[in-house]
Write a structure and sequence with these properties.
Elements: H1 3-9, H2 23-34, E1 45-50, H3 53-62, E2 74-81, H4 91-108, E3 112-113, E4 116-117, H5 122-131, E5 138-147
Antiparallel strand pairs: 1-2, 2-5, 3-5, 4-5
Helix pairs in contact: 2-4
Length: 169
């Protein structure tokens, strides 16, 4: 798949088959996530791979808008690690870039995934902090359920020329 095609055809997948996603594949996705750009090359992220069916089934009790997470064979919780910061304030952008890289890699590999927000919602952050016994310097950022897609949402043309400004407003 060509890169531009990958970017333009990626869609949020919320329904998955029962086919498992091997840990080696998850590690490939995480290699893509860790290849994302970060301010001052800090790489202020940590990742929790969730492939235990019991934990996956209980994720909606922590995050009510994790469609499909109970049916996805795996999920990744992307976290910001405040102890790795030398230039405070950029970890959210860095974790966003890592999350998008993971999503694009999943799509390029024929998998489905969806970005479900955790940060900055206090109830969700607290729920994940408790569920995974996160230390204070680790901030849960986003949960990404991953699996083989059981749906194929159509691509959409989201290009809006009227939102482009050259050399000023």
């Amino acid at each position: 798949m060509q890169m531009l095609e990958t970017v333009l055809s990626r869609r949020s997948i919320r329904a998955y088959t029962d086919e498992p996603v091997p840990r080696e594949t998850i590690e490939g996705l995480l290699a893509a996530a860790m290849g994302a750009p970060s301010a001052a090359d800090e790489e202020p992220w940590q990742f929790i791979v969730i492939d235990d069916p019991h934990i996956l089934e209980n994720l909606p009790s922590v995050h009510p808008f994790t469609p499909g997470s109970g049916h996805a064979p795996a999920a990744v919780l992307i976290c910001g690690d405040l102890s790795l910061l030398r230039t405070p304030g950029f970890w959210v952008q860095d974790c966003s870039a890592a999350t998008e890289s993971l999503l694009l890699a999943a799509h390029a590999m024929g998998l489905g995934a969806v970005w479900t927000a955790v940060f900055p919602l206090e109830d969700r952050m607290l729920g994940f902090r408790i569920l995974f016994s996160l230390p204070d310097h680790i901030i849960p950022f986003a949960l990404v359920p991953i699996g083989h897609p059981a749906e194929e949402p159509p691509t959409a043309d989201r290009f809006r020329k009227e939102r482009i400004h050259y050399n000023g407003w």
